[in-house]
Structure formats: structure tokens, C-alpha cells
Amino acid sequence: MTSGWVFDIYPLNNKMIIWIKQENGNTVRLEDKGWSHSIYVVLDSYTDLLKSIQKDESIRSIIKECQFTSSCYERIIDATKSSVLKLTLLDPTKALTLAGKIETLESSKFGKYRIYNVDLLPTQSYLYEHNIFPLALCKVDNHFSKLRWLNKDSVWSADYKIPDFKTISLTLNLRKEAKIPRYTDKIDSISIRQIGEEEQKEEELCEIQSESEVQVLQELIKTIKKIDPDFVFTEDGDSFTFPCLIYRSEKNNIDLVLGREPTIPLKKPVKQGTSYFSYGRTYFKPAAINLLGRIHIDKDNSFIYNDSGLQGLYEVARACRMPLHTAARASIGKCLSSLQFYYATQKGILIPWKPVIAEHFKTLGDLLIADRGGFIFEPEIGVHEQVAEFDFVSLYPNIMLKKNLSAETVNCDCCCHPRSKLRVPELNYNICQKRIGIIPTSLKIVLEKRAIYKHLLKSEDIDPKLRRIIYDLRQTSLKWILVTSFGYLGFNNAKFGRIDAHIAVCAFDRQTLLHAAKIAERCGYRVLHGIVDSIWIKKKKNEAEDDDKTVEDIQNYLKLKESIEQQTGFKISFEGTYKWLAFIHSKANDILPVPNCYFGVFEDGNLKTRGTEARRHDTPPLFSRCQNEILEVMAAGGNTVNEVKALMASVNDIFQKYAAVLKERRMPIEELIFTKRLSKNSGEYQNRDTMENSVLHFLESEGKYLKAGEILKYVITNYYSRQKRSPDNNRAIPIELIDNNNNNNNMYDIRRYTELLAKTCNSVTEPFDYTPREEQNYTTIRLLIIDK
Q: Is the dihedral of CA 367, 368, 369, 373 positive or negative?
């Protein structure tokens, strides 16, 4: 009997390998030879398929067992179970291969074979079937090469214990033959550092260095084996560090064994990576490099870790039942899918390889009503005083949970009677009253656990440091699953998504926000702005009333909060009262408001900004710092609009300070870096005159070609260059080509950066009728920024 935490899990040949982290710090390897992955096939007549399987040697060679079962629901909308063909694999990693062969059989026509559980990872399937999860505290008994699991943990637990892990970071240093590092460059040294408990403090363990590259690689293998780390962190491990190490090892005929499997060296991934489109942006995900028995985390390829640290990763891996190395690289949508797959598996619902549930038929009139999204009260442009903000708590996920909105519950066949009580507003769709949908079932654990963590954050009995580094990170990671849940419900490739459920959520949202606005108006407030799940209101004042805020105002807001919650059925939080709040107009049109762009300061002095340059990821640090410094001065010294206007001289001083540092070339180059996520591959852009294409052309000349979704970083050097099409055009330079040994402060374009700095400042001062003025006259142009 082995006791400990489930650490790593992966299929190897015809068995599942599980690593257990024990209380004493040891890591134990277990094998489950009695389990294998299965896929399911459904069709009207199985005769042709069974004959084809008997004839096709390539199919028979990967099938362990073939049997019929009647224990599954074929589709999520089915009310009765179906008879399906279960194909058990000899090698659990061959599911996609088998499905492809079945689809291409001679007797196959489009849609004839409906195949399920194909892209369900074997590791996930194993976790689901045994009802365990990563970092679950378990007891395991090896019974005739088949593992028996006793789970002593609960995925619902919020105070679970995590074992002590050994964590290191690894950095590769090359003898570069060109400006950009390449696989052909020989290894100069490898730095290994130990990471402390707070994941920020690093202490150098060793520097592996030698004139012989063979000795460096051999010493790396020995050092990793000696340290025996559980987590290995890199900055670009998937995209460069480990692929380069693999390449250099192959060149030197060395088996690069860095995992805990002593006979399995690292190999070059079959795929180089993939570009994908999500929420209006293109992303690139390099192929994962896994160290079997250890967890490799590439900081450049892990949204969860970068946003929520290891604690957030632990929480997502546990809740969504995904291996740690998979969760570290997965998109939030993939994590949410895993959570849905688990509950579908528990209910006996098969997971479609290719979603087939179609949208219900709608007339043009139905579409006009249905396809309206969330409700928006356009903001009143300008600066407003004494504004209160209310935000519904996880409104869309709570609508899905409380209203039982899911692909199989909206317009279900079993509750379609005209007198059905549960109806979608405006659309009159019926909602199932006989079963709870997969979507609300999956969201329940995320909503309830996040509420528990947020409650623990407010507890005075818990150490503040503990609250910050554990509970806050865990609730943040769960927040992203909730944020994604609504969009994924309408995603055409989501396994359990359906547009009818998606638009039903919007209908309930419109009803809820409008109801909240009417309640506020009845209580004597005016709605200044409202968007999806947030509303900003201001008290309607008579001429005889003064503008002083009193304790009575706060009490009235709290009463309004209770009234909205009681009448709408959804929790809403009173965020506070702003001293002043600015709603910004569009840069293209002065009379057009921007719903998601505003900034203001609460009564307690805390700033809140949305949509400003400082909030954007592509803004150079210089602009963000300058804008934030201006906002802090305005927040600290201005309780009213007039008081803020009186601070504009101080604001201008801040602008002039940063402008002077730019002109004197004292600004570090790191403060001036722009970032852009590419929407296409390097050579696919039509217009070569843009700043970004100038940089891409520069990189191409050095042999580096970026893929769609990768990040481009550059510094502007000569923005107004007229030779835009020249191959020697140096309008901007990518950071990869900046020589760190030279003085780089002479390369940036003072004029362009000063212009952009002024525009960044104007964004937050313009609502107060002021724009900073640049006093320096240039030979060719004067900044068109003057006092109004």
C-alpha cells in the first residue's frame, strides 16, 4: 500500500504511469497495466463496421477488445441510453489514429460513423474513471498489476495540504554566432537556480560551464539527477531552451535524460506548435516539452501560472482534473472543457469527437430578438462626482447555474408544453425542469469554491500573508474559468455548447440589468452608465440639497443593494462611491462614448481604471508609469472636479519631467518596448509600410520568422523615415537585435516617443479640459498639443 499525493501521470506504451509524492519527500513510480483507453462508435447498423474491422489489419492491431454496451447516452440531449460499440485500445495514445482509420473505411459515408471520446486525453480519462485528481491525497494498492485507489481527499476542499516540492529554474547560455540565438550555436553554460517558497526568490545552485559542450550536457544530466527536482521552470523552455538542448544533444550523440524515466531521453516534438484564434486575437502555442516524472513550466507558455502562480495552477489542476503539466499550458477553455467532460463521464454521456448538435430553427424576427447580446446604457461623456458603482457577482455563470441553462436544457423535448413554468424572457424558450444540465453542474463547484476563498480572504483569523499567497491566487484562477464559461457556451467547437443556451443567458442578463436600473430609478437615482453586469448611478438632487456625502448616503446604497438582490434573485456588490469618475469619448468621434473606458477615484482614495493606456499590455512601461503617476496626483489632491483642474500645473510638471528624460536620452531602453501579438505569419502581411512589418522584415533578414500568435517586441528608432520600402529601413528595431553591450539610449526616436507620451497624458487630462504642452520646438515639426 502506497500513500501520498498524485503528482504526475502519463501513458507509456500500454500502461499508465503515476508518480506519487510521499510525506517523507520521496517520489514513487507506480504502473497500472490493467487499464486502457476506449473510444465509442455509434451507427445505425454495425455489420459493415465489424466486417471492416475484421478485414483491416491496421485497425485490428491497435484494438485490445471490441464489445457492445448500453450504459451510455450518445448525445447530451438524449433521455434514454443507446447501444454503442466500445473499442478498447492496446495503446491508449492511439485513439486519434483509430478514429481516423474508421472514418476512412471504404464503407464509410459522411456522418455514417459517429465517434466519441476520441480527443479525451488518456490521462484525463484515467482520472475521471478512478475519481481522483492531481495532488489528491490517496492510498494506492497494486493488485495483480492493476491499481486500486482510495481517495482520502475531496476536490471541494479549500484547505487542502500541498507537499513540499523541490523547485528549480534552468537558463541556457549560448555562444552566439549571430545576433539572434540559433540551434547551431554551441552551449556556453547552463545556470540552475533554486526557487524559494514565494516563487520569486531564486538562489543560484550551480553554473555548469566547460569548453567542451559534451561535458556541459553530461554534467546537466548528472546535476538534474542529483538535485531530483519536482518542478523545472524556464523562460522559453517549450519554444527554444529544450528544443535547443535536444538538438545539441543529438549533434553530440548524447541521450538527454532529464525526466525521472531513466531510459527515455527527450525527443524533438512531432509538431512545432499551433496558432489559434480566441476572443478576437490570434495566439501561438509551442509544442509542450514534458519531463516525465517532473513538471516543466515554461513561463512564456503558461497563462495560469503567470496570472495565479503555483497555487492557482494547483487549484485548476485539482478542480478540472487535468495533469499539472497539461493544466500549465492549457487555455482556460480547455480547462473548462475538462471539467465538463468529467461530469459528462459521471453521468454516462459520451463526449463527441465532432459536435453535431445544431441550433434550433429561428425566423428572421426571432433572430432580431435573440441576437442582441448583453444590455448597455451608453455612458454620459464627461466627469461626474459622487457616483456609485454596483457590480453583479459572476452574473453570467450564476444565470447559467440558477436558471439551469445548458445545451440540453434550453428548448428540451421533455418540457416543451406551452404551460411550462421555466421560460427564457423575450424568447419564450422552455427550460428543462426534470434534469440539471452539464453546464450548471460544472459551474457549481467553481462558483462555490471561489465564494469560499473570497470569504477566507476577509477572515481576520488568518495570517494576511497566507491569504495573499494562497487564497487570493486560488480564487483568481477560478475567476478565469467563470469569465470563459459564457463565451464557451456559444463556441461552435465546444463539445457541449449551443447557441440557443448562449442567447438565453443574454436574455436573462438584459432582464436583470434593466430590472436593477428601474429599481435604482424608483429609489431616486439616475443611471449614468450600465454594461452587462455593472451599473453606475448618481443621486438625483434637488436645488436645496447640498453635495456633501453623508453616512446616510452609504446606508441608502446598501438598502438599494438589498432591494436589487431580493427582486432580481442575483447577488450584487456595492463597489463604493467615487469622488469623481470620468467617462471617455472615442478618439475617432468626440460625441461617441466608449463603454469600457473610464477612470476615477473612490472615497477611500483607491483608483480604478479600465481601457486606458496603462491597462493595455502593449503599452511601453514608460507611458504606463507616467499615466499612473498623473492619476495618483489627481486622486490624492482632488476631491472634486474643480480641485483636480487646479492640479493641472503639477500634472504638466510630471509630463515635462518624463519628456526631459526622453530628450536627454536618459530613458532605459527597457522602458520603451512596444509589444504586438501577430495575427498572421511573418511573410503573410500585404502592407509592408507599417511599423510592425518593418520590424518583421528586420527579423527575417536575420533568419527569424515569427508565426501567427507570437509576440513581437520592438523599439522605435526612426518613425518618420521616408524610405519605408528600403531593405535598410531602420524605423524600428526588434529587441532581439539590440546589443546589450552598447549604449542603446542613442537609438530611440525622441520625437515620436515624446508625441506618444503627450497623447497618453492627454487621455486622462482631456476630460478636465487640459492637455500638456510640449515647449520644445523641433526643426521639422512642433507637437500639436496645446492648452485648450
A: positive
Q: What are phi and psi of 539, to 5 degrees?
A: -70, 135
CA distance 504 to 485: 14
What value does the CA radius of gyration of the chain take, rounded to a whole number of Å? 30
CA separation for the pair 111, 117 (Å, rounded): 16
Residue 413 lies in a domain: yes
Q: What is the CATH number of the domain that holds 179?
A: 3.30.420.10
How far apart CA 371 and CA 130 sit, in angstroms, is 42
C-alpha cell at 328: 500549465
Complete DSSP assignment for 314-383 = HHHHHHHT--HHHHHH--HHHHHHHHHHHHHHHTTB--BSS--PPPPP--HHHHHHHTT-S-EE---SEE
Binning pLDDT at 50, 70 and 90, where does residue 57 land?
A: confident
- Kindly state the DSSP code that residue 604 receives in the 8-state scheme: T
Helical H segments across 371-437, by residue range:
395-402
Distance CA 537, CA 519 (A): 11
Q: Average pLDDT for residues 451-460, to the nearest whole number?
A: 88
Q: Do residues 278 and 194 share a domain?
A: yes
Question: For the purposes of burial, counting CB atoms within 10 Å of the CB of 760, is it exposed (0-12), middle (13-18) or buried (19 or more)?
Answer: buried
Average pLDDT of span 18-35? 94
pLDDT at 34: 85
Summarised one tens digit per residue, pLDDT across range 572-581 is: 999 999 999 9
Which three-class secondary structure state does DSSP give residue 602?
A: strand
Contacts (Cβ under 8 Å, ≥6 apart) of 623: 613, 614, 756, 757, 760
Q: Confirm whether 398 is domain-assigned.
A: yes
The residues, ordered by sequence, that sit 6+ positions from 361 with a Cβ below 8 Å of its Cβ are none
* Residues 390 and 488 both lie in one domain: yes
Coil/strand/helix, residue 622: helix
Residue 710 cell numbers, joined: 507570437
Higher pLDDT, 536 or 690: 536
Q: Among 59, 93, 119, which residue terminates a domain?
A: 119
Over the chain, what is the mean pLDDT?
A: 88
Residues in the chain: 788
Quote the pLDDT of residue 778.
35
* Whole-angstrom distance, CA of residue 219 vs CA of residue 192: 12
Domain count, the chain: 4
Query: Quick one: 219 exposed, middle or buried, by C-beta within 10 A (0-12, 13-18, 19+)?
Result: middle
Q: What distance in Å separates the CA atoms of residue 71 and residue 34, rounded to the nearest whole number? A: 21
Mean pLDDT of 334-346: 95
Amino acid at 124: Q
Contact 177, 185 (CB under 8 A): yes
Residues 523 and 578 reside in one and the same domain: yes
Choosing from 596, 615, 649, the residue where a domain stops is 596
The 3-state secondary structure of 457-480, one letter per residue:
HCCCCCCHHHHHHHHHHHHHHHHH
Q: Span 477-481, mean pLDDT? A: 95
Q: Please tell me whether residues 99 and 186 are part of one structural domain.
A: no
Of 116-130, 540-554, 652-666, 724-738, the least confident: 540-554
- Owning domain of residue 283: 167-330
Category of 453 on φ-ψ map: left (φ > 0), alpha (ψ -120 to 50) or beta: alpha
657 vs 334: CA distance, rounded Å: 47
Q: What is the mean pLDDT of residues 538-545?
A: 67
Of 23-32, 681-690, 708-717, minimum mean pLDDT range: 681-690
Quote the pLDDT of residue 781.
Answer: 29
Residue 493 covered by a domain = yes
Specify if 209 maps to a domain.
Answer: yes
Residue 236 phi/psi, 5-degree rounding, is -150, 40
The percent of residues above 70 in pLDDT, for the chain, comes to 93
85-111 per-position pLDDT tens digit:
999 999 999 999 999 888 887 665 666
Confidence at residue 722, expressed as pLDDT on a 0 to 100 scale: 62
